[in-house]
Amino acid sequence: MRLSQYFMPVLRDDPKEAEIVSHRLMLRAGMIRQEAAGSYSWLPTGFRVLKKIEQIVREEQDRAGAIEVLMPTLQSADLWRKSGRYDDYGKEMLRIKDRQDRDMLFGPTNEEMITDIFRSGIQSYKDVPRNLYHIQWKFRDEVRPRFGVMRGREFLMKDAYSFDLTAEAGQHSYNKMFVAYLRTFARLGLKAVPMRADTGPIGGDSSHEFLILAETGESGVFFDRDFHDMDWSAFDIDYDDVAAVEKVVTTFTSKYSATDEKHDAVEFDSRVPKDKQLSGRGIEVGHIFFFGDKYSKPLGCEVQGADGKKVTLQSGSYGIGVSRLVGGIIEASHDKDGIIWPEAVAPFHVGLINIKVGDAEADATSDKIYKALQGKGVDVLYDDRNQPGGAKFAAMDLIGLPWQIIIGPRGLKEGIAEVKNRKTGARENVALDQIVGRFTK
Amino acid sequence: MRLSQYFMPVLRDDPKEAEIVSHRLMLRAGMIRQEAAGSYSWLPTGFRVLKKIEQIVREEQDRAGAIEVLMPTLQSADLWRKSGRYDDYGKEMLRIKDRQDRDMLFGPTNEEMITDIFRSGIQSYKDVPRNLYHIQWKFRDEVRPRFGVMRGREFLMKDAYSFDLTAEAGQHSYNKMFVAYLRTFARLGLKAVPMRADTGPIGGDSSHEFLILAETGESGVFFDRDFHDMDWSAFDIDYDDVAAVEKVVTTFTSKYSATDEKHDAVEFDSRVPKDKQLSGRGIEVGHIFFFGDKYSKPLGCEVQGADGKKVTLQSGSYGIGVSRLVGGIIEASHDKDGIIWPEAVAPFHVGLINIKVGDAEADATSDKIYKALQGKGVDVLYDDRNQPGGAKFAAMDLIGLPWQIIIGPRGLKEGIAEVKNRKTGARENVALDQIVGRFTK
User: Do B5 and A65 lie within an 8 Å CB cutoff?
Assistant: First the structure.
């Protein structure tokens, strides 16, 4: 993409309304624009990051055997009255009347709707287990939306829902999502510590939140330093191997970790030596629940068992805050100059800077490298604007692409370009005829 | 995908509520489920088709130089008051009050918001031309939603917005979208005839609708039979070549075509010989508008021109009904047994039917072919359920995958499988060791 033909409205100054670094950087880098309290438009580079995160989330859901569907944003109030949550949910639920005066709402979550869909589509025990998910915009009318996309009102969530014949089988479904979440966050370059957590308005007995550490996190967190030494890589696993899946979950739940709502200071002291006790603040990026028949019972989600008797299904739900992750990753990965994108979610892989637009050789060489990289399928943002070099360097650091290629008359005389790693700051001179190979392995 | 582990709730009988064939077939094939009047959940196969159409639309927008963004579903009423459309839009606009009693609305379209975004992100004439688009759920509170996803209230739309310095440049932007639409619909296997059309609540002077012919269409259409002989293939074009783009538009607008709102019987008679006059009904799948400064003026969307003077930008908007296209394609492509998907948008490329589940050889051979096709990246839906062959054949015809591979004991004795083309009905015996190669070229 040529920056001269793109839309990336970078701000020179820090916007006043931004209290935290991710919000500030997203506004400054021209990734988002506020449309209403807690509601944002995703401008081109922000949209690219959002889509990349969404795709990684999707791939890991699919790998764990979940099946993608898509439910509408607006829901009828009827199902929520059946489950008893219509009144429970309070003012966070955005209630709407349509022109026929019917009660609608903007879905804050989808337990009722998916349970009703599944109920109407199945007959026997052969139709389970299943896990259905969707990635859709939700709305929660927070009293005080803040921190940009971290705590918005309209936000993109992946929510999955499992249906099983028995609580034991349901536990395996829960464990699979637990492992899928570890894999997902690892691919996003994050350490998201699973913690015992409150179930809130979703309900049920068993629940884990996945939190990344950041000073601006909304939850206090307490955990064992040993978490840092665990294997957080996106390990391979056979999801049908019940014992292997359970073993990963056991490993990641055997050490103490809890959010403040569930924290038990006595237990913390007894289980974790003082010098390994860590506490701080965390951002919730995922939350999984097992709630048995809480929704399937009132909504009549049952199948005929092998013995002919009706069985009410056992369910869990599994959420990832896709739009929130954009901010969460920035909170975890930035420096004083701007964002530092992990390669997996960067809006472009390489930024190509022509520092002397108008110079025939600089233009020709930059154009040639741009086209060659594009031809090889490398995502390049090419700064071909006629602007001072300093402004271009600052903008490129701000938007945080993993690599920069810098082309200027001085290097060209020696047949070289400068390649900069955004994360380490390391700079290297690379011969012009080696540049493309460098980024295509 | 193994059907035994999928979620495709096929209905045996025609649902009573469906008045038209696409709605009936989508419900019967388990592609969608109604959640409220004019609001649908997309079940797994329906979702796959929706995503494939979305992706083709996206690729053709990108190719024409449009840049993808994403605006929220809910909008503040303020911008609509500025443009004067807040009151104009009537009851079709779903108005909402949030907990702070602020006036919000579920966006039926985005002219105001994108104009405001663009205004705030640009400075000079160097920042145009641009075309920004998004693919987002919209809501229009129709009095009488009907025909399934063809006339829903919550629907997925691609809407693009162009910004130019002059009306002449704006015309080229309009022409590019015109050509991109021809390409898009051609890739979807559709002939969508461009017709002069009313501009309705969007406004402006110049407007074309793209309509596919179907008895259930909401508009009467009148056109020259010569359209049938035009080149509807997804021809290559250099979008920067103003004359070449204009030539395509001229070709497709030189023949008479109009919806009933714009139809002129006298002109029709004078321009089209009687034996070439066609009329019928059409489904609108795309609509493009050029409206100059209708929105940029009240919203102050202007740049500094080369001479230092302020210039108000010239704009157009360009919509494609992505979710409506799912129904539209079925209206154009089905038979008495069910849907006939064009290859480009089929939920799976091949249906693999094991007609004798439990037979060791049939199971082993089917499994092997399934894995081999998957390994080669072919999308396969594998009917491995223990059900009678007749039900399996009927379901596979109903859901309309382009190809079927049928494995049974009789064929296995001769070392063959049957390959059926859903569209032509042609059947062919293919040696087992040739099957995979057949679908991977």
Answer: yes
**Alpha carbons A27 and A14: distance in angstroms, whole number:** 8
- Calpha distance B274→B257 (Å, rounded): 14
A91 interfacial to chain B (CB closer than 8 Å): yes
Q: Give residue B201's pLDDT.
A: 72
What whole-number distance in Å separates Cα of residue B185 and Cα of residue B332? 12
Q: Which pLDDT does position B198 carry in this prediction?
A: 76
Structure token pair of residue B240: 């920067």
- Per-residue pLDDT of A256-289, as tens digits, reads 999 998 999 999 999 999 999 999 999 999 999 9
Residue B98 to residue A94, Cβ atoms within 8 A: yes
- Rounded to an integer, the average pLDDT of A386-412 is 97
* B37: contact with A, CB 8 A cutoff: yes
Mutate to test the interface with B, among A43, A80, A176, A323 (most CBs of B within 10 A): A43
Beta carbons of A102 and B36 less than 8 Å apart = yes
The CA distance from B348 to B333, in Å, is: 16
ipTM over 0.90: yes
Strand partners, B208: B196, B288
Reduce the DSSP state of residue B290 to 3 states and report it: strand
Q: List A84's β-bridge partners, or say none.
A: none
Amino acid at A323: S
- Mean pLDDT of the region B83-108: 94
User: CA nearest A228: which of A255, A204, A201?
Assistant: A255
The phi and psi torsions of A249 (rounded to 5 degrees) equal: -60, -45
Q: Which residue of B has its CA nearest to A62?
A: B1
Mean pLDDT of B152-167: 98
Instruction: Give contacts of B42 with chain A, Cβ < 8 Å.
Output: 69-71
Count the Cβ atoms, other than its own, within 10 Å of residue A427. Answer: 11
CB B207 within 8 A of CB B288: yes
B44 touches A at CB < 8 Å: yes
For chain B, give percent helix, strand, coil, nearest 5. 40, 30, 35
Q: B22 pLDDT exceeds 90?
A: yes
DSSP percent split of chain A into helix, strand, coil, nearest 5: 35, 30, 35
> What is the C-alpha separation between A95 and A93, in angstroms, rounded?
6
Report the C-alpha gap between B154 and B156 in whole angstroms: 7
